[in-house]
UniProtKB/TrEMBL annotation:
It comes from Mucilaginibacter angelicae. The lineage of its organism: Bacteria, Pseudomonadati, Bacteroidota, Sphingobacteriia, Sphingobacteriales. This is Crp/Fnr family transcriptional regulator. InterPro entries: cNMP-bd_dom, cNMP-bd_dom_sf, RmlC-like_jellyroll. It comes from the Bacteria. Residues 31-112 form the Cyclic nucleotide-binding domain.
Length: 192
């Protein structure tokens, strides 16, 4: 298997030799998901922390009224998983579903915990966590303060592939608006 994609990704966060990386990489296995399958479900402890090689997934929860709330979409080169749930062995409240056939490189929670003592992996996890937390906070603030049109334009600019891969009603849910509102916004933007 070609390890270059994951190696390059990890090197964007930390310096690691190819030999050290290969020892870590040997703990991964390839997991394939068909469209509609779940990588983990609410109420259970996820088994894997995974790197997306191919495909698109959505992470969502279900609120007290039974409505889905989409938290994030993940595409190629994205990590997916509930690391805190795996480390504490407490069930997650999130679901991760494949929107397309997916290929993931996956490491178990136990293997991740045992390798987290290695300095370069520890540094990678810390750097990755900081980056992820900053992105979550930025996304949350943006959704609270931006207009529907601004939110749509941002996806159009930063993640246009989502608009081709993800059903419109999921995009609307992610942006915190109704599908009809998103349709109106798309028509207005098309005329700009």
């Amino acid at each position: 298997m070609n390890t270059d994609i994951l190696y390059t990704h990890i090197r964007s966060y930390v310096q690691v030799s190819r030999d050290e990386f290969e020892l870590f990489f040997n703990l991964f296995k390839t997991v394939y998901l068909k469209k509609g399958e779940f990588h983990y479900v609410a109420g259970k402890v996820p088994k894997y922390w995974s790197f997306t090689l191919k495909g698109c997934l959505r992470e969502y929860s279900i609120d007290n009224q039974g409505d889905e709330k989409i938290f994030q979409f993940y595409e190629e080169n994205a990590w997916v998983g509930q690391v805190e749930s795996m480390m504490t062995q407490k069930p997650t409240n999130m679901n991760l579903q494949a929107l397309e056939d997916c290929e993931l490189l996956s490491i178990t929670g136990d293997d991740m915990c045992s390798t987290a003592k290695i300095p370069w992996i520890q540094h990678f996890i810390i750097q990755k966590s900081f980056a992820d937390n900053a992105a979550i906070a930025e996304n949350s603030n943006r959704i609270k303060s931006a207009s529907p049109e601004e939110l749509y334009l941002e996806i159009l600019k930063k993640r246009p592939s989502l608009l081709l891969r993800v059903p419109q009603h999921y995009i609307a849910n992610f942006l915190g608006m109704r599908k009809e509102t998103l349709s109106r916004v798309r028509r207005r933007v098309a005329h700009l």
